[in-house]
Write a structure and sequence with these properties.
Layout: H1 3-20, H2 25-33, H3 37-47, E1 55-60, H4 63-79, E2 84-89, H5 92-98, E3 106-109, H6 115-125, E4 129-133, H7 139-147, E5 152-157, H8 171-178, E6 182-185, H9 188-195, E7 203-205, H10 209-223, H11 229-235, E8 240-246, H12 248-259, E9 265-270, H13 275-284, E10 288-290, H14 291-295, E11 313-315, H15 322-325, E12 331-334, H16 347-350, E13 356-358, H17 366-374, E14 377-379, H18 383-395, H19 397-413, H20 417-427
Parallel strand pairs: 1-2, 1-4, 2-3, 4-5, 5-6, 6-7, 8-9, 8-12, 9-11, 10-11, 12-13, 13-14
Helix pairs in contact: 3-6, 4-10, 4-20, 6-7, 12-13, 12-18, 18-19
Length: about 425
């Protein structure tokens, strides 16, 4: 891609956002969140006096990338408590969910890429080191950081041969990679691909920091075993299927099994929780209740019974609970595997040592592929296959246990990426 085409892309992107914003909530948030952005950044950076140490800037495309970079950010805070942390997001879903995150001193949207925006943003935050999580490459921001010799690290990068970096038209993309001081990648395969671009000395295989993050979450959940009493009561000692980050295609594979097995408890956490989406889920699962209704006391069980005779499906209509819900599962299901974009985060489920079931679209997600190969992940391609897998696991305690143990072993075997990255930062005196 030439710089001319890149400018055309930016123009079309900006125009498209404006055109769809009247009826697209995410586009509207994207625009509104950037109004007066530079004034806010200038005011915050000028008046903050709590910490006077080096400035660490971490950029994430969205929420998933934040969870990926979070272990590194929090490790750096522990080792350098006087540092100032600036966190930026490109996507509204990341910003709106984590805008109150206490681990950062400043949280902003990233301005749309341009020479002027890049210079102004970097002038205002004055970073001493920049952590770029996984992807979301923006030419002018990366080039400006390189021009100023500011250390720039890629965290948990993953590369595939079908990406523009490795195509004849990908010169601009290749230059973006050359802007990085060091690239920490998830796999040897990614390192091998980068070797084709003559990127060798500044590439390390660190693994995926998400493994460290889910291990932290699971450890914290174990310390708070009674933190979700409504969930405990709903499960009531029954077999439980926790289905997380689901789309309509996923729910259509699960609804029949849930509807004909009132003795099994289902906890369904849709990826999107708009009112229209929640109503779709309620239409599929005949005996369901929303978590918010449960919290208000609706359909409360009779004293001493400990569990609802019905409904048997609990729909999670909030953001932030899912990673703690998987520990209540007998079997977990992770959504996205029936859509074009592929399966969502299987590690949040696998860390609890539970079988993880998902749809067939996993080729872009090395952790889902490896989890399947390890014996902890089970692929289904239809509602009939889902019922067979659920019945087999629920009726065979040995297979249920072995599959779950394989999941847990896989996650534990991959920890340590955070320590590798932070050790590099301090050994190279980047802070």
């Amino acid at each position: 891609m030439s710089i001319i085409f890149y400018h055309v892309f930016l123009l079309l992107y900006r125009t498209g956002i404006r055109l769809i914003s009247p009826w697209n909530r995410k586009a509207k948030l994207w625009l509104e969140g950037r109004k007066g952005l530079f004034q806010r950044v200038r005011a915050e950076m000028a008046t903050a006096t709590v910490r006077q140490g080096p400035v660490i800037w971490m950029h994430c495309s969205s929420l998933g990338e934040f969870e990926q970079g979070r272990p590194v950010l929090e490790a750096l805070r522990r080792q350098s408590p006087d540092c100032r942390i600036v966190l930026s997001f490109f996507s509204p879903s990341g910003y709106t969910t984590r805008k109150d995150y206490k681990g950062a001193d400043h949280i902003f949207y990233l301005p749309l890429d341009s020479p002027g925006n890049a210079r102004q943003f970097i002038d205002l935050i004055k970073p001493d080191i920049v952590l770029w999580v996984k992807y979301d490459y923006w030419y002018y921001f990366l080039a400006e950081l390189k021009k100023r010799n500011i250390p720039l690290l890629l965290i948990s990068g993953i590369f595939r041969e079908d990406q523009p970096f490795f195509k004849w038209y990908g010169r601009l993309h290749r230059y973006m990679l050359e802007c990085f001081t060091h690239l920490f990648v998830q796999t040897e395969a990614s390192k091998t691909l980068l070797r084709r671009l003559r990127l060798t000395e500044n590439v390390s295989v660190s693994g995926d920091t998400r493994f460290d993050r889910v291990i932290e979450i699971a450890a914290a959940a174990e310390l708070e075993r009674t933190s979700l009493p409504l969930i405990e009561a709903f499960c009531g000692g029954r077999p439980v299927v926790v289905a997380g980050s689901t789309w309509e295609e996923d729910e259509e594979e699960l609804d029949h099994f849930a509807n004909v097995h009132p003795d099994i408890r289902f906890i369904v956490a849709p990826h999107e929780i708009s009112e229209a989406r929640l109503q779709e889920v309620e239409g599929l699962f005949r005996h369901s209740i929303r978590y918010s209704a449960l919290a208000r006391g609706e359909n409360v069980p009779a004293a001493g019974r400990g569990a609802w005779p019905e409904p048997n499906v609990l729909i999670i209509d909030n953001i932030g609970m899912l990673s703690r819900l998987y520990r209540y599962a007998t079997i977990t299901y992770v959504g996205g595997g029936f859509g074009d974009d592929g399966v969502h985060n299987v590690l949040e489920a696998a860390v609890y040592g539970k079988p993880v079931v998902f749809g067939p679209v996993i080729e872009k997600y090395i952790e889902a592929v490896e989890l399947t190969e390890s014996g902890g992940g089970l692929i289904i391609d239809s509602a009939l296959e889902a019922e067979k897998v659920f019945n087999r696991l629920l009726q065979n305690a040995g297979e249920l246990r072995e599959t779950g143990e394989a999941s847990g072993r896989y996650v534990q075997s991959k920890k340590g990426a955070t320590e590798k990255i932070t050790r590099y930062i301090y050994e190279k005196h980047l802070l």
